[in-house]
Design a protein that fits this description.
α1 packs across α5. The chain is globular and about 65 Å long. By secondary structure, it is α/β, with parallel strands linked by helices. The protein is built from twelve helices and eleven strands.
């Protein structure tokens, strides 16, 4: 495996980012208001790779919060009246710097929904395939991170094209895919080092970080539980009591993929667009008849966690629908914790 070294300073790293502007739309963590960091288009800025994690996940780079799919006109004086036309898209390749391994793995989870044998979302697929992911390994886990026990880890390589490892004054970069190799060439980052020594140094960093984890999620028994056993468990009322149905958990989650499709008109012109939606919203399952199968918050909270921790697990047998980034734990205004709920589900024994 090829390993490349570049200086951490503004010199070689910044020069490479400038070269990439000719070929990619580059994204990375940038500071917004207060101490909030999110993935933004870099332009002539350098990504801040000192932060532990962004406020929002980078899923919006591939799956925008709102995305126009089609345009149409109802003006009968025009030849294309009542015809749907695909909206123009910026198809320039994208490069994402500083994405954490857990966030990169989340795209593989989403891929099982957007790119299946029977159903394919061309908008998501084309955007994902045009993106190169340059990951940043975690040297220090956040207090609420549990990616290791979720089946991933601070140095996980799944879903990445490159893995940057921070050694304070320099980065060691593992080149993982041809897309990653192409980006390195265009950035002129070609200082190849002795791979045996570099990989040993990276492994030492990985072991050190994994030893620092203080929290985990219990999932070992979930597969053996029946759906109805967990669905009818008595703890859902207690766990949902404080929920505000604000949707923060789904908004910040890298693996939530629910969306709605709506038409919006202005005069005779209109667009058909996708918008993020949330299973926590009362309108999410409201039928045209007025019936709502999940009309109260207990039902909605149960749906969220059953889907994350049971339905997805049973359907794909690829682990839970969670990468352990901890955003929902940190940002829930009423401290609902997926780790606590998973522990209850994992240890629950129905009374006969």
């Amino acid at each position: 495996m090829k390993v490349i070294r570049i200086d951490r300073g503004e010199g070689k790293f910044r020069e490479g980012l400038k070269l990439l502007q000719n070929s990619y739309v580059a994204f990375g963590p940038l500071k917004e208001d207060r101490e909030v960091y999110n993935f933004k288009i870099l332009g002539d800025k350098t990504p801040d790779l000192n932060i532990q994690n962004t406020y929002l996940s980078p899923k919006g780079i591939v799956f925008p919060q709102s995305e126009v799919m089609l345009k149409y006109t109802l003006d009968e004086t025009k030849e294309d009246c009542n015809l749907m036309k695909e909206a123009e898209k910026d198809k320039k390749p994208k490069a994402v710097f500083g994405i954490r391994p857990c966030d990169a793995a989340s795209f593989l989870i989403a891929k099982r929904n957007f790119d299946t044998a029977d159903y394919k979302d061309p908008y998501w697929i084309s955007s994902y395939e045009a993106t190169t992911f340059a990951g940043l390994a975690c040297n220090e886990p956040c207090s609420t991170c549990f990616c290791k026990s979720a089946g991933y880890g601070p140095f996980n390589e799944e879903g990445l094209d490159l893995l940057f490892v921070d050694f304070n004054s320099y980065f060691l970069i593992k080149v993982l895919t041809p897309k990653g190799e192409e980006l390195m060439k265009k950035a002129n980052w070609q200082n190849v080092v002795d791979s045996d020594k570099a990989l040993a140094d990276i492994l030492s960093k990985k072991t050190s970080c994994e030893d620092k984890f203080t929290t985990s999620i219990a999932t070992s028994n979930l597969k053996s539980k029946t759906i109805l056993e967990l669905y009818n468990a008595p703890f859902w009322e207690e766990e949902s009591f404080a929920c505000l149905n604000c949707g923060t958990c789904t908004f910040v989650c890298p693996t939530c993929w629910c969306f709605d499709i709506q038409d919006e008109n202005c005069g005779c012109d209109g667009v058909r667009m996708k918008n993020w939606d949330s299973c926590m919203f009362p309108l999410f399952t409201l039928h045209g008849t007025g019936h709502n199968p999940r009309g109260n918050k207990q039902q909605r909270v149960r749906q969220r966690f059953m889907h994350k921790l049971k339905y997805y697990l049973d359907k794909y047998d690829k682990g839970i629908q969670c990468v352990g980034c901890g955003r929902c734990v940190r940002l829930c205004p009423v401290n609902i914790d997926i780790r606590r709920i998973s522990e209850k589900m994992n240890g629950y024994k129905a009374c006969n």
